[in-house]
Design goal:
Elements (H helix, E strand, L loop, with lengths): L2 H8 L3 H9 L6 H14 L6 H5 L6 E6 L5 H16 L3 E6 L4 H13 L4 E4 L8 H10 L2 E4 L9 E5 L1 H14 L4 E7 L4 H17 L2 E8 L3 H14 L5 E4 L2 H14 L8 E6 L12 E4 L2 H15 L9 E4 L2 E3 L11
Parallel strand pairs: 1-2, 1-3, 3-4, 4-5, 5-11, 6-7, 6-8, 8-9, 9-10
Antiparallel strand pairs: 10-12
Helix pairs in contact: 1-2, 1-3, 2-3, 3-6, 5-12, 6-7, 8-9, 10-11
Protein name: LacI family DNA-binding transcriptional regulator
Pfam families: LacI, Peripla_BP_3
GO molecular function, one term: DNA binding
Amino acid sequence: MTIRDVAERAGVSTATVSRALSGARPVSPAVLEQVTRAAGDLGYSANGIASALRRSRTDTVGMVVPSIANPFFTALVEGVEHALQQAGRQLFLCSSRSDPALEAQRLRSLVARQVDGIIISPVHGVRSHDAVSWAAGQLPLVQVDRYVAGVDSDWVGVDDHLALRLVVDHLADLGVRTAAFVSSTLTNSSTELRVAGFQEHTARRGVAVDQVLLGEYSIDWGREAMRRLLAAGPLPDAVACADDLIALGVLQVCAETGVSVPADLLVTGFDDIPYAALSDPPLTTVRQPQDRIAGEAVRLLSAALGPDRAPPARSALAPSLVVRSSTGITPSG
């Protein structure tokens, strides 16, 4: 891959490509967009030339999340943007749509655009590895919420193991003896840690695991999972969900089929998105410290951009349990 290939794809001269990517001389916004898109599409920055051409900072940071439709990531992006604004930087936001191939393309484009650094919540624990590792070799990168193992980068997220301890202890203290867990398929670190935490802490508290149902983080999957539990026979005492969207789907089917929550079934979620407090009944859930996660991600990235870069840091922040009526507890206790 050469600069001539990029020039042909962008429909400009090789000199224009050089000026656009190096920033040595100004080009129009339209031409810059053409060149950076062509370079990203062709993976031109993968040969290391982009790093060599970086002569000044752009005060921009790229962020890649699996979905901007998920309220958790929407709030996380808002927190990162606010923290970056305070630091004098702007955000370029990309959605990978839970597609590792599209995620890799987004990363190439951000590097070609010469962002100062990248904040990413990887799609997949294995299939995202090569692209995330490559990007981390080009410029400072911080993983948030989820992480890809074996990548030389910082990470900040919630302590998923502690979160499931809070959930299971709460349910066990209420007398729950059987529980099901509804989650996404085991494709990323958060999902794996939450399933493992549920199994470990139910065993510790003597709560029998009825079923572990794996699908996706969505209301539709929560509805389908609840229908499967109903079809399987007697319901467990509780259903714990790996995120609030799943839990909202569970609550919808309970309402449709006459299953009373919490009289017949206790339900918990994870994330504490705004809808959790508005559901019927209001949802008991794990609250992630999203503003702190966002602030720490920006702090770690700023430190990595400094002259003395420290070894990669891992910051697991403590969650809290927000208890509401879906587990039989009213605001008055």
